[in-house]
Amino acid sequence: MPKMQQVMQDIHGSEDWETIREITGNWSNDRKFFIQKKNGEKLLLRLADSFLYEEKKREYARVQRWNTLPFPMSQALAFGLCAQGSFSYTLLSWVEGDSLDKLLPSMTKQEQYQLGVQAGKILKAIHGLPVDPADLPKQEPQALMLQRLSRYEQSDVRVKGDEPVIAYVKENLDKTRVGLPPVYQHGDFKVSNLVLTPEKELGIIGFHRQGCGDRYQEFDQLEAFDVEVSILFSLGQLHGYFDGDPDDSFWDALSVYSAYASLVSINWAKKFGDDEVARMQHRFAVTYEDHKAYANRIPKWYVPVSCI
Q1: Rounded Cα–Cα distance for residues 208 and 56 (Å)
Q2: Of 23, 61, 63, 247, which has the most beta carbons under 10 Å away?
Q3: Measured between alpha carbons, how far is 79 from 233 in angstroms, rounded to an integer?
Q4: How many CB atoms lie within 10 A of CB 170?
Q5: ∠ CA 279-285-286 to the nearest 5 degrees?
Q6: SS3 of 76, please?
Q7: Region for residue 40 given its phi and psi (left: phi exceeds 0; alpha: psi -120 to 50; beta: otherwise)
Q8: Which ranges constitute the DSSP H helices of the chain?
Q9: Model's pTM, two decimal places?
Q10: How far is CA 161 from its chain centroid?
């Protein structure tokens, strides 16, 4: 990659950047940088290969659409090419705050649950945005799931005893056809992409996996990541989103999505190293147990609203 000085020359306003610090250790193919301007304003810069320009341009337009929602989130500031056309860049506002995955374990039970309720309402607001017809999925979602599942079956990082789970996904794929229209998906809605701001508001970051698809698939992140941090937060998110208990169609779909995600995420993690593969394999085992080998649609950690 060219030196940052070369990149800065192509980005309008970069002459006012005082601090540039790369953010490492994230699960994104983008390179991310914390920027602080001379006036103290903080920014987030994302760089991607130029061949992804059109994809990143669509992502930027969707973030602009989401910026109309009334909660703290990364604001779309600028987009274009830099480094003489070698990279696309996205410039966003910096959301000040502490990540929920760090904060939740030290909070009271009531605080954890109420933050979950807020998160559920935020996710529902994102899903309520009008979808541009140009953003509708170009491929039938179930066909794409089968393609990715096939790649997992052919990979060298499979887990022992995965055959019944693979069969469960294939045999129950129709349960993900819930008949609801596609929505804008955050794509990575989990506690590590939610922050508590100094004003004690819940903010949202990490839009790089956003897209358009089934609203219920969004919750596979809750089962994979949020439950291990805080069950109460996870319960609150579901209760806040559904304004009560989810219906049977949700649990039917989520059990399939969770089984599917627990498999394909193992293969996906290969590019991040053996430790991440091992973590995903562990999550596969936990999700398998939570659903009693998928004999139960509703995971064992779930508690109805009436019992909170």
Answers
A1: 9
A2: 63
A3: 35
A4: 13
A5: 90
A6: strand
A7: left
A8: 4-9, 53-66, 100-103, 109-127, 141-153, 163-171, 220-221, 227-229, 231-242, 248-268, 274-290
A9: 0.91
A10: 28
